Structure formats: C-alpha cells, structure tokens
Amino acid sequence: MRDPRMQKLAENLVGYSINVQPGENVLIDMIGSERELAKCIVEEVAKKGGRPFVETSDRSVLRSMLMNATEEQIKLWASFDLKRMEAMDGYIAIRAGENINSLADVPSDKMNLYEKYYRHPIHSEQRVKHTKWVVLRYPNDSMAQLANMSTEAFEDFYFNVCNLDYAKMDKAMDPLEELMKKTDKVRIVSPGTDLTFSIKGIGAEKCSGQKNIPDGEVFSCPIRDSVQGTITYNSPSVYSGVTFENIKFTFKDGKIVEATSNNTEKLNEILDMDEGARYIGEFSLGFNPYILHPMKDILFDEKIAGSLHFTPGQAYEETDNGNRSAVHWDLVLIQRPEYGGGEVYFDDRLIRKDGHFVIPELEGLNPENLK
C-alpha cells in the first residue's frame, strides 16, 4: 500500500508545481534506486492528460562515464539529450542517490567539461528557461544520515516540509517581493561578513513550490559590479561531490578577488571555470519554517528559516544582471542567533535581525505565521 503522503506529494508536483495540461510532454528524471514516487508521478501526469517520459540514472555509473569521457563524447551526449529537453513542456527531477560524494574524485577538468558542455546548455539554458520545472530530493537513508536523523523521523520531517501549504506561503511572500523590487542598497552584516550591493532595477521573484520542493525564498540579483566587502558562509556545501566549509569571499567592484575555505585550491578551481564564476548571479532570503539546520543538500539548505544565499555564477533570466557562467552555486549564510546572528538592511532600514523579519509588512514570513 502506498504512503498517502507520497501520493499527495505527487499530486502537488503535477497539479500545482508544474500544472500539467492535456497534451504536454513531461520528463521525469529519477536519479537513484527508489521508484515509488516516480511511479506516482507517472500516473498523476497521465491523469492530467499529459504524456510522461522517464529517465533513470545512477551517480556511480555517471562517475565511471565522466572518468573516461572526452570533450567530443560529452558534446555528442549533450546533443542527444538537448533534443529531448527541447521536446518537453515540463520536467520533474527526483534525486535519491545513496552517496552525495559519488563524484568527489572525478578530476576537475572532466567535471568542467560536464558542466560546460552538458549541464549548462541542457539545464541552465534550455530546461530552466523553456520548461515548467520542479526539482526535489527523495527521503532515503542517505538523506536521513545527512540530517543526523533516523529514516522514520526524517520521512516525517520531509513530508511536513514538502507538503506545506505553499499557496498560503505564496501570498505571504508578496510584500517581500514588492519591497525587493523597490530596493536599491542592500547591506548584510554577520560575524565575518560586512557586504553591500545594489539590486536597483533588477526585480525580484518569489518561490513557493513551483520550481523547487521544498521551497520558501524570494530572490533578486546584485548589479554585477556593485558588490563590495566580505561574506563568510556558515553552512557546508557540496559541489561536484566535494564538501566545502568555512567559505569566505572578498569582493571588489563585484568580483571575488579572494576566496578561502577548507579546500581553497579546489574552491578557486571552480571560480576560475569561466569569467562569470567570480561574479554573483543571485541574492535570496530563505524562510521555510520547517528547515532549521544545514544537511549538505542545497534544495533544503537554501530555504533554511533565517538564511540567505549569495550565489557565484549564472544569473536567472527573471532577475538578470547579465552574468553568464557554467557555475550557479547557492552558498548559504544562516543568521539565526544559534548561528551567530546578523542583520539585513534595505536602503539603510533594518528588515531582518537574527533571522526574524522585524518590519510589520514582512511578519507573515516568520515561522509562527507559516506553519
């Protein structure tokens, strides 16, 4: 018998997140060995009159492929999959790999080829810009381990987060989206962080379950050369299978001129992938009330209550500062008191302190009002 929470999640993904219409093609991209949610989604797409297509893959196989890949091979592989993505109206990705570090030992030159010639054209350029899409994880043993929870407790947490009333959250986001659209100067202050930049004229977008599950953020983007100062992130982050901690960036005229971490050499290899990787492509405030601590999974970590992320690399089309890169790396700073606290100012007005919104129009986004 199927878990009714899984059935509800499939209904939400198909009916709310990408709103499948009759005749639409939907690619269900399943990474890992779990199959039950994928089957639920196939059935829900069909109920809506859509046409489901399924891709299943395994990170350990991808590792072997990348270890032996050539540039010509990756370009040919990308040409096949790009044609498929161009035929899709919707995309749902379920990521359920057993080991988040499966790609950790793939050489940087091979990963750079994969990012540049496969992921960037297919996902950043085609899927993100031209399909209705949503990406989520699956609550397996590996994820529970990352969260330092039993599998059963993690499943309860996962379904609370993923089956949140996102329509209610969507309405509560409106004042923040409007305020960000009117804001010029942003200042972020935290331990090891004093950063200023402008978002004037860039716009803002709310995220309430249409692109990611879980969700809960409103994002904008700095004017490309406006970023000045230093930011120290306090959440670990996995990129290409490598875990980074204590990342610190110093900016001058928008560019990361100094970058350090527990793996400074590897960090700078990523930032040197292309010219745009040392500039910022997204600034966002996160506020999902059920997500409180990092678990080295960016779909969850970037939505942590009282957090923000400040993202090197590619800018989104909706809030575009012109930055282009094969990199888009959401790095998270949590400002709740137990993580050191901090403030966010919009045009010299304090709007969030220690992770809690302090102006009346934004109080609807505080945890007690979203649960």
Automatic annotation (TrEMBL):
InterPro entries to which the protein is assigned, alphabetical: M29_Exopeptidase, M29_N-terminal, Peptidase_M29
Cofactor(s) needed for function: Mg(2+); Co(2+); Zn(2+)
Top-level taxon in the UniProt lineage: Bacteria
TM segment ranges: none
GO molecular function, one term: aminopeptidase activity
Keywords: Aminopeptidase, Hydrolase, Metal-binding, Metalloprotease, Protease
Name of one Pfam family that matches: Peptidase_M29
Family named by the database record: Belongs to the peptidase M29 family.
UniProt-recorded name of the protein: Aminopeptidase
Species of origin: Paenibacillus lignilyticus
